Amino acid sequence: MCGIVGYVGRERSLEVLLGGLKRVEYRGYDSAGVAVIDPSGVLHAAKRAGKLGVLEDALRAHPIPDGATGIAHTRWATHGGPTDGNAHPHLGDDGRLALVHNGIIENFTELKTELLAEGFEFASETDTEVAAVLLGREYRRLGSLVEAFRAVVGRLEGAFTLLAVHQDEPGIVVGARRNSPLVIGLGEGENFLASDVAAFVEHTRKAVAIGQDQIVVIAPDSVTVTDFAGNPAEVEPFDVTWDAAAADKGGWSSFMLKEITEDPTAVADTLLGRVHEGDVRMPELDGVLDGVDRIFFVAAGTAAHAGRLGVYAIEKWARVPVDVEFAHEFRYRDPILTPGTLVVSISQSGETMDTLMAVKYARERGARTLSICNTQGSSIPRESDAALYTHAGPEVAVASTKAFVAQITAIYLLGLELAKLRGTLTAAERQALLVELQAVPGKMLQVLETHERIAELAHWMADTRAVLFLGRHVGYPVALEGALKLKELAYIHAEGFPAGELKHGPIALIEPGIPVFVVVPSPRGDAELHKKVISNIQEIRARGARVIAIAELGDVAVLPFADEVLPIPLAGPFFEPLLAVVPLQIFALELASAKGLDVDQPRNLAKSVTVE
Ligand code: M6R
Prior knowledge:
- By secondary structure, the chain is an alpha/beta fold.
- It has 3 domains: 3-243, Aminohydrolase, N-terminal nucleophile (Ntn) domain (Glutamine Phosphoribosylpyrophosphate, subunit 1, domain 1), CATH 3.60.20; 249-447, 3-Layer(aba) Sandwich (Rossmann fold), CATH 3.40.50.10490; 450-602, Glucose-6-phosphate isomerase like protein, domain 1 (Rossmann fold, 3-Layer(aba) Sandwich).
- Helices cover 35% and strands 23% of the residues.
- It is built from 17 helices and 26 strands.
- The protein has an 8-stranded antiparallel sheet with strand order 3-2-4-1-10-9-11-14, with helices on one face. It has a 6-stranded antiparallel sheet with strand order 5-6-7-8-12-13. Strands 18-17-19-20-21 form a 5-stranded parallel sheet, with helices on both faces.
- The chain is globular, with a radius of gyration of 25 Å.
- The structure holds 5-amino-5-deoxy-1-O-phosphono-D-mannitol.
- Residues 300-303, 347-349, 352, 355, 398-400, 484, 488, 605, 608-609 line the site of 5-amino-5-deoxy-1-O-phosphono-D-mannitol.
- 5-amino-5-deoxy-1-O-phosphono-D-mannitol binds next to helix 8 and helix 15.
């Protein structure tokens, strides 16, 4: 979704702003724009529908002067189509101020009617232009950009990050946020604002998260943060733990491929420092788990699949009731929340609006909240009572891969911590599980070695129109994830089912030649379950399905019934999903590549969904 960058400092705004937009491109967008105040104090803006390259071409054809202050934006269309006119920045005060926005201004129609009645004119169909025109009106009245900002944010309903510059106050950028992301980057004689740290990490790794309903003013040598009423606000500085190289594609053909190969590191880094003398140690959870008698995971997409695995593991290990819910459903069904309820949100970006709203809802109703998140300084951990960070590093491809395995790792650590607290597993049992978890990265490397074989399979299947995924127990969330990856990357109709559900309906979809991936549990884990899955395979094979089994190395029982076996190393039942998902990630990537599709930025999707 929209990406925002603001800069003040040296006369190199265009380079910083366009470079920043490049780094937040992964969020997904359909137009881009920039506004700069030149050294003589004149505001210039340029914007274009299409990718950043279109804007860059336009700037080459019709250059605007560089300056020391500016703002920039990539837009993901909500109100009004992706056109040049609807792109940001939008102008106010007769072209003397420029504003960019991420979010949705829900009361824009009412505000627009008010402004139209006063004779103001509009050049776009966007909700954002209403904020720009309103800001211009308030600037005229109050004579100060900060004061005008305060007046404007008081009138807006909905979610927004706003940044603005005014040519009469050329040395500052003013920003505000409510429910949408905004982070400050602290430089030497220059400062930055952005929707996420990726936009400025090549210039500085010192950052400050901006809280809910706060206004920030950056100047070359100062940063001021207040609440909407103008009272000084407490800020939380942090150091970004990764550098610009981590967010670069390096020599890889796609970010997604790079990120799949980082699956092992994502697991290993998430474990780092959290296992001590054979037991789990996570001071960040101190106090938040005491007396917990019920857990809800709330998340969306891939993160919800990680949560679904948490249901199996945590109920088994810690003997506490656990449910997983799509965040967007959770708060609309009046769930029973008590002080003993722990609502655990899972989010790579930390900005998914549905998840953020579920967390706020849970807090307001007296539940405790814990955020499992991959992004420092993001909104969801800031809105939660405690945070357990995954350390997957920046995930740029829209399809989540390494963040998923890091989320599962964090959830398992949480389960073991709960089991320790509740005395439901002995120290030896916890240690054995941790040993298994620590062995996962090495085993993932073995799975990654099978890439070529999976690629061949995917390339053969380039014309496939539908694929089914089956799993049981912890194999079921893997099936769901395999189907989601294929849908979003290869635009193929794909469904994941619990294998036991087949006979209750989905088996009607089986027709000769339809590819069905089956996640086969280890026969050494639950022999009964293994037998059941083999018989499910026979049922679909008998109806002509082409079976691709993901099975433990040496599982001979599956061989007579599967057309293809993608082997994974031996692992305990809860650890198989971390291995079994890797071939499915590779398969989706390769099938999309075989179809000539953009695997990093699939159509219609945004990396972080910051609107409801
Ligand atoms: O940033 P989040 O983890 O909160 O994002 C949640 C989903 O939007 C995300 O997992 C989405 O489903 C991915 N595109 C899946 O690959």
